[in-house]
């Protein structure tokens, strides 16, 4: 029946086996089993996720030809597919077509549009759409606000992001951790560390449980601002909060220590990673090698380079450049041998 075919088509789409999915669709029709909206939605969703929005559009047109009316999920999925490709003109065409066929966009539809505009750095257009939502019968939700806050942060418009956060709370929407982390990251990346620390305090005092992402963002911000001691203290406090630093957090802390000339501490932290079951990755090795070279610890750099190669990792462009500058050094010649 149609449910069985939908399950099979979904499975084929998940595996990227388009020919089989198409064959199943044709088989359904041959066996007089009419594909329903869900059948077509499965295909549209799968094609859009594979960057094949034009093909997904063709499926929607086929639906209409067969007398199956696309629903809000169909149109929203297609809009998302075009958004992923940055084709906002096509997104608006789908929206207009959707409305013309008496299918009203819902909050998910608007969130997709707003996200598309924000990723295309058209945050003012996103904000205009946001203001239209209540008039169109859709009330912005936490996702809507979070997406716009992220858009403003990406553009460096932190004042607008703060104002939107205040508006969000005034309308009874409590920011979630993702929203707070987004704003925290924006503040840190724009060197507004004092405000970032204040926001971090707000997060700590809220009922939300800060995750490793929250701390990683702030540790990174502190390191880049040259406040490595404060970053180290925050990093060390994680164990008391029962939060396990991941490889990315360790990489940031090791990098901060290396740039501050604290190579001994960086080396100890590197060793502690494996002690706590975290395997250094290629990024970790490149950071520690560059730190050694930066601090003229050539022998130690050679040690980590050998270990890096033994574990199947390669030197990145920055490491290679630093090594090239030391190409006449006896230690590098020794390493090549």
Provide an overview of this structure:
The chain is mainly alpha-helical and about 325 residues long. It has a domain at about 1-105: Serine Threonine Protein Phosphatase 5, Tetratricopeptide repeat (Alpha Horseshoe), CATH 1.25.40.10. Helices cover about 70% and strands about 0% of the residues. The chain is built from 20 helices and no strands. The chain has helices at about 1-15, 20-30, 35-50, 55-65, 70-85, 90-100, 105-120, 125-130, 140-155, 160-170, 175-190, 195-205, 210-225, 230-235, 245-260, 265-275, 280-295, 300-310, 315-325, 330-335. Helix 11 (about 175-190) runs antiparallel to helix 12.
The proportion of strand residues reads under 5%
CATH superfamily of the domain at 1-104: Tetratricopeptide repeat domain
Query: Can you tell me the CATH topology of the domain at 1-104?
Result: Serine Threonine Protein Phosphatase 5, Tetratricopeptide repeat
Count, helices: 20
| Average pLDDT metric | 90
- How many DSSP E strands? 0
